Amino acid sequence: MPTVNLDYEKLVSPAYYPMFTSADRYLAYKGSRGSGKSYATAIKVIIDTLQYDYVNWLVLRQFFGTQKDSTFATLKKVAYDLGVAEMFKFTVSPLEITRKDTGQRIFFRGMDDPLKITSIQTTHGNLCRIWAEECYELKDEPALDTVEESMRGILPAGGFYQSVFTFNPWSDKHFLKHRFFDEKTRKARTYSATTTYKDNSHLNADYVEDLEDMLKSNPNRARVAVLGEWGVAEGLVFEGLFEQRDFGMEEIANLPKVIGLDFGFKHDPTAAEFMAIDQKKRIVYVYDEIYQQGMLTQQIAQALAQHKAFGLPIIADSAEQRLITELQQVYGVPNIKPAGKGKDSIIQGIQFMQSYRFIIHPKAKGLWEEMNTYVYAKDKFGNWTNQPEDANNHAIDSLRYSMALYTFYKGNQYMNYQERVQAVKNIGL
Q1: With contact defined as beta carbons under 8 Å apart, do 262 and 397 qualify?
Q2: Using 50, 70 and 90 to split pLDDT, how confident is the model at 409?
Q3: Running DSSP on this structure, what letter comes out for residue 181?
Q4: What CATH number has the domain bearing residue 80?
């Protein structure tokens, strides 16, 4: 192997030095957006594979289908950034990275198919490293224990087993908290840390400004997204009503589909939620999403086309009639109409939504984050009210617009106030 000088102290901030110096069994990094934790871990994966010729990695996510465009792409980019890409072979079928001269491999698996994890066989060295990325998605602690137990065998002198966990801490109810962060219950030989955007010197000024603005405008979301702290513990509007699952389009092929569209620009995202609804079982499947700041009208139209929105009904925020007209008349977006609004329409729409369960595809990251941070407001005495806070709700508003087709419309007409009141009563809300 040619000599490669990879100085981690020049590659990552001091917050991530323990990744390269610690032999602890577990390294757990919760952090904010833009904290650089995923990129730093990818550097560790590459360096460990080059430094220790006994090391093989398992890169783990809850959903295997999310790996190719996330962890695999990041590791490939890091290898090129470090100037060592020629030392590796990158394949997508199977999804693997192989060190050419030794045969060491970086495997990619999903917890949604655990049998493929336990069947891993290395050709050189041992499976002795795990990187669990976005591991807030992980649902089953015993299943994780089983995966950890699959790392076995005698390592060379000085060798060690190690698992790295990186995630955004959307809720303090997740098992990751007691497993790695609570002093009384965390596993032995654990190093845990919290990192923020301040630990990443490669962010541009506009991105940092947006994060810092969130501290004032959206403190619940900023708790996680900016400060890397544990998320909301109580008061969630849709608590217990949503889950994340990687489902295929064949599962929802025969269900009616509709798109909700909420407009934003600089600080707020434009959010389009693509949903299918099962009225009999009262389940909403959210299968795709557009969620982006700074979108101009033409960019919205192009994104809708790319996401195969044309041909489906699109219900858009009626407060932006100009944008709706531009999308229709200038950019040819079909089947788009303004959302119905009126007295108490928001709280009525939320009440109706609470009579459904929501299955959210991993593509819909914005909605997933909002569901985890959308809370009821408190009064001046600190008591919960029945009114949600007007924050963390752009994707949720989008979904509410689309669901109104199945709740508050008679034919093509949005119901008046009294009709909506009766509709809410009719389902016992």
Answers
A1: yes
A2: confident
A3: I
A4: 3.40.50.300
